[in-house]
């Protein structure tokens, strides 16, 4: 169901993208979408993905396609 996208030169699916953002594999992840923003570090395109790091938490994570920059909507 999820579409693979290129991030830092590698094809990733939604779960893998969330894992890159979170540092751990999430329980679930939604589809990868284009975030309407650019990376503050390199100006590259930013992807977003919703995921569940635990049963009680839903996080939207953002990840640059070109560099290591990432953040989440926590707090
Ligand atoms: Zn970047």
In brief, what are we looking at here?
The chain is mostly beta strands and 75 residues long. It contains 1 helix and 7 strands.
Please explain how this structure is put together.
There is one protein chain. It is built from one helix and seven strands; from the N terminus they run E-E-H-E-E-E-E-E. By secondary structure, it is mainly beta. The chain has one domain (5-72). Bound molecules: zinc ion (ZN). Zinc ion binds next to loops.
Set out the fold topology.
Layout (H helix, E strand, L loop, with lengths): L4 E3 L2 E3 L1 H9 L5 E2 L3 E6 L6 E10 L2 E8 L5 E3 L3
Antiparallel strand pairs: 1-2, 3-5, 4-5, 5-6, 6-7
Bound molecules: zinc ion (ZN).
In whole angstroms, the N-to-C terminal distance is 30 Å
Number of strands: 7
Low-confidence runs: none
Number of H/I helices: 1
How many structural domains can be distinguished in the coordinates? 1
Order of H and E elements: EEHEEEEE
Bound molecules: zinc ion
The major pleated sheet works out as:
5 strands, antiparallel
Average per-residue pLDDT, rounded, comes to 95
The shape, in one word, is globular
Give the class from helix and strand content and strand pairing: mainly beta
Question: Could you estimate the helical fraction of the residues in percent?
Answer: 10-25%
